[in-house]
Amino acid sequence: MVDLILHPERTVGLILRGELLADSTSRSDDNSTTIGQHVAYKVPGYTLSRVLRRRLLPKIPERDASLEQDCVLYHEDGPDVTLVALFPLLEPGQGMPYYHPDADALAFRHVPSKDGRTQALLRVDVIPRSSVGHDEGYRLYKACLALLEIIDRHGHGKSTGYKKRVIHDTVVPRDTYQDFYHTMKMRYQHLKEEWVESTDAIKNVFEASVPFSSLMFP
Question: Which CATH number fits domain 2-159: 3.30.530, 2.60.40, 1.10.287, 3.40.50?
Fold first, then answer.
């Protein structure tokens, strides 16, 4: 569960990565005590065990804004986490970014078999925003379905002892590479109009809606 929280890009393709801002279980983070004491996410029948605050960074920041989000972990009877709830933290007047479902809260949980004869369930619960229309409702449905499939795949891999075979980002940190790659695409986006290769230029550069003077280059 925590691995998916730390890597939101595995669940949503339009997200570049997530940045961990605070963790209620970390004593070295001054912000962690603020979350633990002043943010109360109570769910009947569950015990809150951990709160992580992360910032979602979009792949195309010129189009989508970043978004902070609280990820709350709960357990029921034992120590294992059985419920994870996600709460977007919108600034006043801020709209929901396109890459995030239009919901005030989204949660997924494991529902074990009660009698040993029925199968355990993986369930997604959503509190949609009041502004959700038909089209947004359909997008929300598709997002929940994709989330279920991804959690099921990762859960199956963990239960069968899957281990990552190849370790990436051993030469240059991933965050540094991603930021520099985006900068280079922005700097040389004009090449799209002068492209002479047979491959589609859009795979290497893309248009931006901001002037070059407003960009920060190393």
Answer: 3.30.530
Q: What pLDDT sits at residue 16?
A: 93
CA–CA gap between residue 84 and residue 175 (Å, rounded): 26
Residue with tokens 């990762």: 154
Q: What does pTM read for this prediction?
A: 0.75
Strands (E) in the chain, as ranges, are: 15-23, 47-58, 67-75, 81-89, 103-111, 121-128
Backbone angles phi, psi at 213, to 5 degrees: -65, -20
Pairing of strands 15-23, 47-58: antiparallel
pLDDT digits (tens, 9 = 90+) for 135-144: 667 788 888 8
pLDDT at 65: 92
